[in-house]
Queue: 4 jobs
Job 1
Amino acid sequence: MMTPYVVTRYYRAPEVILGIGYSANVDVWSIGCIFAELIRGKVLFPGTDHIDQWTKIVEILGTPGQEFTCRLQSTVRTYVENRQRCAARSWEVLFPDSMFPPMVESRLSAPTARDLLSRMLVIDPNHRISVEDALKHPYVCLWYDPVEVDAPAPGKYDSGVELHEHTVDEWKDLIFTEIKQFESTHDIHGVNQQEASNGLEHSNMDLQ
C-alpha cells in the first residue's frame, strides 16, 4: 500500500505529496534534499504542511508541465494547475560557488555538484535521475565500489526490535549501540576484520 508518510516532510518527493505512487527514485529526491541541506546549511524545502511543502518546491523548481500534471487525480490536478505559475530558480543562484569548500579533486567541483542536484531534484520522477545513473555520476563515482554496492547483506535482519514500543531516547540508544558494535568489528571501509584475518590465514596456508 502506497502511503504519503514514507519520509520526513522536508524530504518528501512530489509524487508522494500529490499521491500518484512512487518507485525506487523516490529516494533519489530525498537524498537530493539532504545533499542540498548539507551544502546550504539549512533545509531546502521547509514546508509546514503538505500544501506548504508543495508551495516551497514549486517556488524553487518552478511549476511542472502538463506531462506531469496529467497523471494527477482530477482534484489534485485542478489545484496544481490553478495555482500561480512559478519560474524555476537558477541552480547557480541557489548554490553559488561560495557555498562549496575549496576544490581538492576535479570531480568534486561546484558545477559538478550542481549538475547532480539538478538531476536529483526533478519534480517529475520520469525525468529524475535513476539510482543506477546517480551512482555513475562524476560527483559520486569517485566513491563507487561495485563490490560494496552489490555485496550481500552483512547479516539477516532481526525484526524483533520492531515488536516492541520504544521511546525516541531508547531508539537512539539502540542505534548507537548497533553502530558501536559494528565499529568494533569492522574497519573504516566496512570490512569485517575477523573475516579478513581468517581469509589471510587461509591464503598463507595455501601458499605453504
Job 2
Amino acid sequence: MWQRQVVIVFLTCISFSKTFKYQVIPENEDIFQDCKDQPNGVYGIGTLLDFSEITYETVGQSVILKGNSRSLWDIKSKDRVQFELRILEYAWGDWQPTLYSMKVPDFCSKMYDTDQYWYKIWLSNLKNLEDVKDKCLTPGTKYENGNCNMTVVFESYLLMYGRYKGEVKFTAFDEFNKPRPIKICFEARIELQRLS
C-alpha cells in the first residue's frame, strides 16, 4: 500500500516539475558519421542512403539539408526493420550512456508516423512523400528533400549540458525473423543549447 502512495507522490511531483527546453546544435555540418569500432557486418550511413546529391548549409546555428537521397541498403520489401537509438553523453573523457534510448521493432510501420521526430525533421519535408510513403527503406527509393531544417528542439525534466551523440542502428530481419548480414550504424554528435 505504501509503495502505491510513494508512486503517486512521485508522479505528482513530476507533473509540477519544470521542464527545460533545449536546441540541438550539430558538431559537424555533415551531421552524420559512421559508428566507430563496429564488428564485421556493421556498415555506416553510406550503406543505408546515397547522399551524393545532398548539400548542407549552415544558417546561424541551423543546418539546412537540400537535394535528393536514395536508399541503398540491400534489404527485401517484406523485411522487418528494427530501429534503435541511444543518446550518449561525453563525460570523463568517454561516451557514457544516458536515460534516453528507444527501440522500434518494426520501424517501417512507424516511419511515416507524423508524431515521430524523424518524420517532423526529415520526412515531412519530402517533395515526393506520396510516392515513397509505402516503400520504407527499399533499395532504389528516391527521397526528394525540400529545404530540411535539421534543427531539433526538445524538452526534458533533466538539466543537461555539454556534448552528446545519438547512435542509430538499423537491423533487417527476413520472413523467418533471421537478421540480414548487413546492419547499419551511424551517429550524430551534438552540443545542447539550453533555451529555457
Job 3
Amino acid sequence: TVPFALASPSAGAVTRVSVESPLRAQEQEEQRREFEALWGGRDMATESGEDASEDTCIICLTQPRECVLLCCGHVCCCFGCYEALPSHTCPICRSPIDRVVPLYQA
C-alpha cells in the first residue's frame, strides 16, 4: 500500500488515500498460496464445542499450542510454526530461544 495525500485547493482539506501496489498485492497472494500449500487447509476442531482461541497457535491460529519456548517459558505456538520462525526469538517477547520442550496436555 502506497499512501499519499490529495489537497483540495478550494476547501483547504487534505484527504489521505492508499493505493494498493499491484506488485505488493501479487506478493501477498503468492504468500497466501504458499501458506495454504504448506498447511493444506488443516483446521483445529474442538470436540467439546469450547472456545479454543486460548489454546490455538498465535501464528497460524489453527493448530493447538504444542511447545514451551525456553528460556522465557512462553507457550504460544505449534511446533510447525516454531520451525518456520525466521529467527530463533520468541514471537511474544522476542527473547532468544535456547531450546524447545514439547507440551503434553492431558
Job 4
Amino acid sequence: MPSDRDPFAASSAAQPTTTGRGQVPLEAGGVGATGGVGETRPVDRHAREGDQSIGELFGEVSRDLSTLIRQEVELAKAEAAQSAKRAGKGAGMFGGAGVAGHMVLLFLSLALWWALSYLMGGGWSAVVVAAVWAVIAAVLAARGRAEIKSVEGMPQTADSVKKIPDALRGHEEKNS
C-alpha cells in the first residue's frame, strides 16, 4: 500500500534522539537485532554531534582552499579580460592619434621646407629640416633608452609571491 509521505523529506522522526546514556531507543514497536521490542543500541556521539575526524577536516579545508583559489583565478581572468579590452581601445585611439600627429608633423615639415627654400634654396632647406628631425630623433632615442634601463620588472609582485609558501605553512613572521 503506497504512502503519501515524501521519502526524501527531512523529518524529525528520522533523527533518533539519545537517551541519557548515549543510546538511541528503537522506534516504538520496533524490533532490535536480537528480536527484543523497545531495545536500545549504542550510538557514536561524535558522529551524531557533527564532529569530524582530522582527515575529514583536512579534506574539507583543502577543498575550500582549492575552491577559493579557483574563484580567485577566475576573478583575475575576468578582470584581466576587462582591463585588456579597455587597454586595447585606448591603444587603438593612441594609434589613431599617432597617425594624425604624424600627418601634422609631415605637413609642418613640408611647410618649413617650403618657407626655408625662399631663403637658401630648395635642397639646403630640405637638409635643414632633416637635420632638425635627426636631432629630435636622437634626443627621443636617448630618453627612451634611459627609461628602458630603469625598468625593474615587478618587484612587489615577486616579493609577495615569495611570501605565499610561508603564509600557507603558518609562518607569516618569516615574511617580515
